[in-house]
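Changelog note: in this version the structure field was regenerated for every chain. One regenerated record is shown below for reference.
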Amino acid sequence: VRTADGERTERLGARSSYHYQLEAFAERVRGGRPLPLGADDALETMRVIDACYAAAGLPPRPRTAL
């Protein structure tokens, strides 16, 4: 990372990002606390992913029935 104050190297964890997500979810469930994000956030994330597919010229992901 280069900034006006200098340069530094940051190291991220070696685990998959899914591991961190699952860990955070399990902590919330065990503690009985609500999740910080809801269904609206999930829908917006799906819209962003769909837009990325479209921008890359890829077909939309197949839909599944709920």
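Spot check on this record: The mean pLDDT is 89. The first helix runs from residue 17 to 31.
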